[in-house]
């Protein structure tokens, strides 16, 4: 188990990273949290409102591909743990513009691995007190048919530029473990849902469109399947893998909670009907469902077998899907200020206000 005295969290202002930092007191108690985030369109410093630079927290705006900055950070801070969330994360964007996915997800991960290698394997530090946790996705395994599950030994078969770039970064992490002995583990998780997700992803997008009475775009026939996990359960799994995982190993994380996309969209419609004022037409939000052209190369089904993580790490998800979805939909309905800032981009001004010019 690493020291956890100083944890570098990359991508800390995104969806999962910000949920992790909010839970850090319980996940990595007593640790100093150093956040590195480029604040791309998906990174919102407002997600970490209430955190201020001090003994236990520091925020640095910067690019994981900037080797000078990353090496400087490893020099300034006694980083013994990296939780690497930073990535371009949206499949549709990766189809429209794959270059940034190759840059951030592959080159950025390479750059962090190099900095960790120089800092941790210089002979002056005990590598057993360090760990690089690479937060990856089940999408590296490709697409399942109607049966079967992804295990840690399923061959990689990525099919989108996003999943190919994540798979590539996973291979680099494994290479650094095997070649240099860098202490590292990889977690491969299924689709997350919860508060603070950028509203380009299915669940927040459909929730907000349903609230506004706009079309709800369902790709293809809506029968693609994802295995949904509440974001806080993912964060707990990451910290448990950090504590109990074996370097060089991969751990699958999933909710054992497979749903078709149409089932998800219908559930959101019903929750918004229950929690928000009715549509002016008096119709159910289900009337807004619109089947649209399918995503190119759309993976049919993802389903994680998390037996290894459950048995070897002792992790179990805590949130059931029904209450988790209700909490999530209600969060987006209750946080109209956050939604407005994210939508019109004015959340960028928050950074200027907090850290202007730095
Ligand atoms: P996100 O898109 O919400 O957040 C990504 C964060 O990384 C943002 O804050 C962004 O500003 C930052 N970032 C992007 N490029 C950067 C760069 N070059 N340098 C520094 N920071 C940069 O993503 P998320 O949904 O929170 O996902 C986090 C990680 O978890 C990703 O690695 C993703 O592959 C993985 N993952 C996500 C899911 C999911 O369902 N969201 C599931 C499994 C794994
Ligand atoms: P998404 O949230 O983009 O996650 P991922 O592609 O990483 O699984 O999409 C989840 C599923 O929902 C996926 O099968 C694509 C589908 N989808 C829609 O049907 N309509 C949409 O508008 C979006 C964004 C996604």
Q: Tags for this entry?
A:
binds nicotinamide-adenine-dinucleotide; seven-stranded parallel beta sheet; alpha/beta; binds thymidine-5'-diphosphate; two-stranded parallel ribbon; Rossmann fold
Q: Nutshell version of this structure?
A:
Helix 7 (202-212) crosses helix 9 (261-275).
Describe it:
- This protein has a single domain (6-199, 228-257, 301-320, 345-355), classed as NAD(P)-binding Rossmann-like Domain (Rossmann fold, 3-Layer(aba) Sandwich).
- With 358 residues, it is an alpha/beta fold.
- Helix 7 (202-212) crosses helix 9 (261-275), helix 7 (202-212) packs across helix 11 and helix 9 packs across helix 11.
- The longest helix is centred in the N-terminal third of the chain and has 22 residues, at 99-120.
- Strands 3-2-1-4-5-6-11 form a seven-stranded parallel beta sheet, sandwiched between helices. A two-stranded parallel ribbon has the order 7-10.
- It contains 13 helices and 13 strands.
- Residues 10-11, 13-17, 36-40, 42-43, 63-65, 85-89, 104, 108, 135, 137, 166, 189, 191-192, 198 line the site of nicotinamide-adenine-dinucleotide (NAD).
> What's the domain count?
1
Bound molecules: nicotinamide-adenine-dinucleotide, thymidine-5'-diphosphate
Mean pLDDT: 95
Tally of DSSP β-strands: 13
Strand order of the largest sheet: 3-2-1-4-5-6-11
Order of helical and strand elements: EHHEEHEHHEHEEHEEEHEEHEHHHH
Structural class: alpha/beta
Contiguous helical run count: 13
State the shape: globular
CATH topology: Rossmann fold
CATH class: Alpha Beta
**Uncertain ranges:** none
CATH superfamily: NAD(P)-binding Rossmann-like Domain
Distance between the termini: 35 Å
